[in-house]
């Protein structure tokens, strides 16, 4: 059976799906409805439930498994699931959350093994110690969490997948531009998003925590670097530079960075982060697009559709 994101407009749906997100709303004429994001291993799709009530809100809350019947439709350039029937999974149906949560192609253990190899290229003992300390402190969550609630690397082990991909990109750039400080760049790549293990709730039906909403992963990580330096009794310019790498990695204030990059490695970190996030979104959108056709509109990429060439 094809996954939910591999279906085309007009295709029928009869799938077990996990409710990734569930939000209630009210139509312009005051009628309640629910917006759902439903997922299986292939990815996720949006759906609407009309004329809902409080019972529906409990039944179809995030993290619930449901069986959905309907069809795929095009809504403003984006695929949407038109729901004709929906019900909670029954006790005798053997489907589990694990069967429906998308995950990185490589295992988390394999990804961690790849990441650890980069420490052998680092020479600065202070940067190494702080980075190893924080990686070890958050390792379990870091290996399983997504990198976001939606858009890029929003699947189990997406965070470590994103970081390993960025490290490989960083290594290539260091080979091309030997003036780059590997220690600072590699450490910045490893640390820049670790705050997401406190910002987000986990790999299933991911939402923002209270700390995530009030502080955000950048502030969380700057504080974590301070704590690590105190615990390790490290005091040096390296600590401040690691904090700057994290503070500036979104590139601009309007994109969520309290500071713009002011160090060469911070500027490069911002580009690497952006490239890897966008490539992840593009690859996943193009994977479910036939040659000679356009992808659905990609909101994080200025709502553009991308063409898939007919040749390889």
From TrEMBL:
The gene is yhaM. Keywords: Hydrolase. Residues 162-278 form the HD domain. This is 3'-5' exoribonuclease YhaM. InterPro entries: HD/PDEase_dom, HD_domain, NA-bd_OB-fold, NA-bd_OB_tRNA, YhaM_exoribonuc/phosphodiest. PANTHER family: 3'-5' EXORIBONUCLEASE YHAM (PTHR37294).
